[in-house]
Amino acid sequence: xxxxxxxxxxxxxxxxxxxxxxxxxxxxxxxxxxxxxxxxxxxxxxxxxxxxxxxxxxxxxxxxxxxxxxxxxxxxxxxxxxxxxxxxxxxxxxxxxxxxxxxxxxxxxxxxxxxxxxxxxxxxxxxxxxxxxxxxxxxxxxxxxxxxxxxxxxxxxxxxxxxxxxxxxxxxxxxxxxxxxxxxxxxxxxxxxxxxxxxxxxxxxxxxxxxxxxxxxxxxxxxxxxxxxxxxxxxxxxxxxxxxxxxxxxxxxx
Length: 254
Known about the structure:
Number of helices: 9
Strand content: under 5%
Number of strands: 2
């Protein structure tokens, strides 16, 4: 394999760490909504920060990993399809709480879009691209909430209501009032966080720093990191089955 496509163990380890963190977060979510442990909601702010740390890391690391992919369009199509399957399953199993335009749909879309944008983006200097992407992400963080800015820290101006019309505008980042999704990651603003990871990779490669990410990492982190899509698809069914089994055994004991 070429140097820029070699397996980066530390990158796998970081991905695995946040996958395990995600599984822990979803276990807490299951305890709240499936097991009635509503007292956990007293820590709502901490739960929100935990959730945001996971999704920010996933999106940034996915953008960072894009140049390492041999077939980003094929990979993106697979991830997008898995997102569509999750959407269909959620609409069938829990129609009142569907997952529409979730993280897999976004990541698949970003992988495919970046393939088309790459010829233009590679003309930009990596430092300028990284700074511009981060700035645009911060400025557009509030588009889902009808504002330009990064609420609750600052808002610049409200956005026209005419932008928020239908599912297509929701996919772009402008959801209508009746839009509902338990897991929602639109193209805006998240594409710019994805691009931040892409430009950070270019910056590291240009300064010959990718070897840092080839450092060894614990196997219990690199293993899920190397099979992140499979882990993502299976972790919730395993958690739910484990909780159901636990409650069944508990009833039998009592």
